[in-house]
Amino acid sequence: MSRIKVMTVFGTRPEAIKMAPVVLELAKYPEAITPVVAVTAQHREMLDQVLKLFRIAPDYDLDIMCKGQTLFDITCRAMSGLNQVLVKEKPDIVLVHGDTTTTFAGALAAFYHQTTVGHVEAGLRTGNKQSPFPEEMNRKLTGSLADMHFAPTMTARQNLLQENVDPGAVVVTGNTVIDALMATVDDGYHFTSRLLRHIDYANHKVILVTTHRRENLGEPMRHVYQALKEIVIDHADVEIVFPVHKNPLVRQVVQEELGELDRVHLIDPLDYQPFANLIARSYLVLTDSGGVQEEAPALGKPVLVLRDTTERPEAVAAGTVKLIGTDRDRVYAETRRLLIDGCEYHKMANAVNPYGDGQAARRIVTAILHKYGIVNSRPDEFAFY
Questions:
Q1: Which of 43, 76, 306, 349 has the fewest C-beta atoms lying within 10 Å of its C-beta?
Q2: Which domains does the chain have, with CATH numbers?
Q3: Which residues are catalytic?
Q4: How confident is the model over 114-120, as a mean pLDDT?
């Protein structure tokens, strides 16, 4: 039996977290698969944290990150570097993940080489090409280039079918982030940070906050932080842990609004392992991130999303996530409701997670093996009811 060469391409921390289970699953089939891992390092330090955690050693590291990089820089440098890798390796299939600029560049480079493209976490849509920017168009353009679509949910599958994707090219797998979480969260986890070790998770309501979206920079973020300031002042049992994004535009406003408050802990971004375990010990999450909308519900934590749109509507429908935007009064009101209304809190906390069962990577690899005639059957598909 001839082996198939499967090349995975990723470049940011979120991609690495979600592709790590796939990389590890591919390695379980040495008789059938030759795996190749290529990273662009679109985000250098944050990517390295995840590679170390999951013990993944890339075969190719393009190391494209540069100070002040633009979307043009990332796209061009990634395309140029991946072209050289593709010329040398000649993979049978290239796997890209999600919605980053690396994702789109990887899919386009593979297409130019007439190489099969597999899109992990395919089919997410907001319907607004400006929100989130540039992720929505990265997803759509990658979807147009892909030959295999690994949709995390039935909603994502339906989005693809509405775009006339061949139903036979779509497999509903669940989201690989759930695979990663199950391998990472541990009730006995010991934080290395003294601050995180000494927070009173049992008696205080810890709110985990993350913000970074381009469309929220400036006044929208300021309004969110002003609402959080009022929450802390009005509720003596609340603590906020805020891993602050390294974007100086985010840091400046955070310091101005929250920097002098007791019970607000502004910390540097966390590695994935402590971050996942911090979610598990928090009471509530406020975020404008995409991935956290999947991770927190899997751990039974309500999520208030600081956006007006989401490409992850399943959690909204299930009741684990609520879209609240960035209006100061609404952020305050929705956060306060979950702090004082136990019924509302438990309704969100106990809703069923719609994103996966920890078997997504297995389904993805089985689908690839089936495509190339190595196994006889397609994988079972993930179903959320």
A1: 76
A2: 4-175+357-372 (3.40.50.2000), 194-350 (3.40.50.2000)
A3: 99, 121, 135, 212, 214, 245
A4: 98
